[in-house]
């Protein structure tokens, strides 16, 4: 009976581990940043009206203006006017503010951000939410038990992504 | 006791409201409805608009409560022919998979094509017309110039407001807090505003924001909802599209645990022992319009065919992010730590008073147990002789809007308002300066303006004494001549002493507030020294240790000054008795993070060696 050398000896677990890619620090950080950005996002799905072709019957914003109680009707600008006039994204605004603040030596938006905590971080299992003391060798995610580890490996482990 | 206090304040508030209404009526009858005459009545009326990132609270100041309008445009899957602006969402039958258009990005308005229609809706005839009344509008802290420009333009040119005042929501809230608690206008108050986009900690000293003490924590209701959505989608159903529903789930089920570890242990249990786990019936927008927590004892027939969420540790771990953002890998301190840090950044003589008057407002305060947990954490982080009082208003979301009436009875209110005429003449930039100066930069000017005259020669002398003391220790340990250490002028030649001195100066400038912050010269000198320190790489361990020991002595001196300034009712004698013990715990609260020698304080020269 001949058995090939590769299956002869050694633990399967170690072989598995050797095959697994370890995600380096930079991509772990990148993932973390991505998660933080996602937590600030407004929607996770696409605009349900995106494929809608606007016909004239569709009421537009301007229809509301009739109800307003301004004395004169001379200056009524559309919403697009303001959007175009003040078109700047958040990053640009922050940057501008910081430059101006540096010139005038005043406290700015960036200065008041909280620093890193002096307390050590707590670790929670990414799968079930209870305290997790182990971390994934590939991607560093925390888990608490073999069961949660298996779930993690099958689903969110970075060995697939990144 | 707290209850009694709240009741009393409530009574007072009610009384006030009645008087306000009376005056309103009187004002109306005397001046008619012409609007331009509002200045003549003793009580002004205005349209108060608290324009938050999630909801706009708008209403006429004579009313008891504002209209709450979601600050967004929503698109529903079911109704493809229309958009829902603000409150119109109540007309929507099926709120599943709502698509949000939010005007704000991290709390600051960037999408004007969304904000404009929402405001149009808000100020339309049926909701909250402006009608020549002055407009009081809130804006986030450090609102960007461009946004301010646009706000001015919209309100003055588009809505033709007769006059307007833009201010931070906390400015108003402070006035109401002072009014409700019968405090004088210059009582220091610390306000925590925890809303949809972020959480701000703002110390008010002498009625003005102390800019250097402000802290922002980038955790708000939006992040919490998104996080809850994320973990439910991973563990149970995919609800990534159901922001509207999950926000309700959060509001209905989440709470703040007083002790997380104990709560986790409880949540791990099976069966009846676990009273945390709750079943939440999700709405199907057919029979059930809004989700609810299922009663475990009753057989629920309506929920038979419905989807049920099982919520266990999610209930308290989600709001926990406010206290420990590091739980989700965010590199930021929690709310309690930020408050402590903010307090210790303020001048020493106000620190105690700030801890006495802490006001929490904003939607996140509505988590049950939030106040208790915050108190528990602050109590353990702040010096034990200080009184810590946290006041949470009955409705923390509407508190800002309700404080509009307190603002309108403010004596200077008329001079603060900017009229349309002034806007046309001066333009937006000058008006911004006016808006921003009130309650804001005045603080810094005040601090700098008053302090050079304040420190008497005696105080300066005592400071010099302190410095001499420090350098003497330094001398002993490093072995440099003592004649140099007493000179205050920076001479870049003797670098080691410079380091020594600069350290002490820095320490002194940041720590004992009253005496030192005074002279701006010292501060700038300290800053200059600090630069030198950074550039200098010749700090030997011996000098470092010496510095550390020098720093270790300082807090004791601070404690003494604190004693002298303290007139809060506890006698100085009592403190002196405990002096030893307090001076031991005192420096444990980190006064300045960037002090590189802080860790050396305990080693090798304990501070006891100098007492």
From TrEMBL, chain A:
Keywords recorded for this protein, A-Z: Metal-binding, Zinc, Zinc-finger
Record has NAD as a keyword: no
SUPFAM superfamilies: HIT/MYND zinc finger-like
One of the GO BP terms on file: chromatin remodeling
Domain HIT-type: 125-157
UniProt entry tagged with the keyword NADP: no
GO molecular function annotation: zinc ion binding
PROSITE patterns (alphabetical): ZF_HIT (PS51083)
Domain of life: Eukaryota
GO cellular component: a single term: nucleus
The protein's name in its UniProt record: HIT-type domain-containing protein
UniProtKB/TrEMBL annotation, chain B:
Keyword annotations: Cytoplasm, Cytoskeleton, Nucleus
Classification via InterPro entries: Actin (IPR004000), ATPase_NBD (IPR043129)
Residue ranges with Basic and acidic residues bias: 1-18
Disordered: annotated segments: 1-38
Keyword Acyltransferase among record annotations: no
Family label: Belongs to the actin family. ARP6 subfamily.
Name used for this protein in its record: Actin-related protein 6
Organism: Brassicogethes aeneus
């Amino acid at each position: 009976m001949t058995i090939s050398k590769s299956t002869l000896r050694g633990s399967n677990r170690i072989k598995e581990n050797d095959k697994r890619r370890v995600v380096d620090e930079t991509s772990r950080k990148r993932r973390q940043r991505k998660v933080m950005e996602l937590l600030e996002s407004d929607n996770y799905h696409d605009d349900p009206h995106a494929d809608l072709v606007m016909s004239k019957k569709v009421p537009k914003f301007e229809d509301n203006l009739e109800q307003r109680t301004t004395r004169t009707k001379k200056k009524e600008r559309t919403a697009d006017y303001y959007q175009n006039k003040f078109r700047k994204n958040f990053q640009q605004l922050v940057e501008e503010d910081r430059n101006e603040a540096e010139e005038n030596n005043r406290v700015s938006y960036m200065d008041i951000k909280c620093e890193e905590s002096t307390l050590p971080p707590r670790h929670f299992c990414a799968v079930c939410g209870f305290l997790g003391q182990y971390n994934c060798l590939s991607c560093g995610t925390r888990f608490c038990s073999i069961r949660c580890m298996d779930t993690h490996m099958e689903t969110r482990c970075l060995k697939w992504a990144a | 006791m707290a209850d009694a206090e709240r009741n009393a304040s409530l009574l007072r508030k009610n009384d006030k409201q009645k008087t306000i209404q009376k005056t309103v009526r009187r004002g109306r009858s005397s001046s008619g409805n012409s609007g331009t005459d509002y200045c003549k009545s003793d009580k002004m009326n205005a349209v108060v608009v608290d324009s938050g990132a999630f909801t706009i609270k708008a209403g006429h100041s004579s009313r008891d409560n504002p209209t709450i309008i979601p600050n967004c445009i929503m698109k529903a899957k079911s109704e493809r022919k229309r958009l829902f602006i603000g409150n119109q969402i109540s007309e929507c039958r099926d709120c599943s998979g709502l698509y949000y258009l939010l005007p704000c990005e991290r709390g600051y308005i960037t999408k004007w094509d969304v904000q404009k229609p929402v405001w149009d809706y808000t100020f339309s005839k049926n909701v909250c017309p402006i009608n020549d009344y002055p407009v009081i509008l809130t804006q986030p802290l450090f609102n960007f110039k461009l946004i301010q420009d646009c706000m001015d333009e919209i309100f003055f040119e588009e809505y033709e407001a007769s006059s307007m005042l833009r201010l931070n929501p906390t400015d108003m809230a402070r006035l109401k807090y002072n009014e409700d608690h019968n405090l004088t206008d210059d009582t220091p108050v610390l306000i925590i505003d925890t809303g949809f986009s972020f959480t701000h900690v703002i110390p008010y000293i002498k009625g003005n924001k102390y800019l250097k003490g402000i802290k922002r924590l980038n955790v708000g209701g939006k992040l919490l909802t998104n996080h809850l959505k994320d973990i439910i989608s991973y563990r149970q159903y995919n609800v990534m599209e159901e922001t509207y529903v999950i926000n309700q789930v959060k509001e209905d089920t989440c709470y703040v645990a007083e002790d997380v570890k104990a709560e986790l242990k409880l949540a791990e249990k099976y069966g009846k022992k676990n009273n945390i786990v709750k079943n939440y019936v999700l709405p199907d927008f057919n029979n059930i319009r809004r989700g609810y927590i299922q009663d475990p004892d009753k057989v629920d027939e309506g929920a038979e065919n419905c989807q049920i969420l099982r919520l266990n540790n999610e209930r308290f771990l989600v709001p926990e992010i406010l206290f420990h953002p590091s739980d989700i890998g965010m590199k930021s301190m929690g709310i309690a730590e930020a408050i402590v840090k903010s307090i210790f950044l303020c001048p020493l003589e106000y620190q105690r008073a700030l801890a006495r008057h802490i006001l929490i407002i904003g939607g996140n305060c509505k988590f049950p147990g939030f106040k208790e947990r915050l108190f528990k954490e602050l109590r353990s982080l702040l010096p034990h002789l200080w009184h810590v009082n946290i006041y949470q208003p009955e409705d923390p979301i509407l508190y800002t809007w309700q404080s509009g009436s307190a603002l309108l009875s403010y004596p200077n209110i008329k001079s603060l308002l900017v009229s349309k005429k002034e806007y046309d003449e001066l333009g937006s930039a000058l008006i911004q300066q006016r808006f921003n100066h009130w309650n804001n930069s005045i603080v810094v000017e005040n601090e700098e303006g008053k302090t050079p005259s304040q420190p008497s020669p005696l105080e300066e002398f005592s400071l010099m004494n302190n410095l001499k003391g420090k350098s003497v220790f330094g001398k002993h340990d490093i072995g440099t001549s003592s004649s140099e250490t007493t000179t205050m002028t920076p001479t870049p030649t003797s670098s080691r002493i410079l380091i020594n001195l600069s350290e002490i100066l820095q320490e002194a400038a940041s720590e004992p507030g009253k005496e030192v912050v005074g002279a701006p010269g010292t501060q700038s000198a300290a800053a200059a020294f600090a630069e030198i320190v950074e550039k200098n790489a010749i700090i030997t361990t011996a000098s470092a240790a010496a510095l550390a020991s020098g720093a270790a002595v300082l807090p004791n001196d601070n404690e003494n000054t604190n004693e002298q300034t303290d007139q809060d009712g506890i006698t100085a004698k009592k403190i002196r008795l405990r002096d030893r013990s307090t001076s031991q715990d005192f420096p444990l609260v980190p006064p300045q993070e960037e002090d590189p020698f802080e860790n050396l304080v305990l080693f090798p020269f304990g501070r006891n060696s100098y007492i």
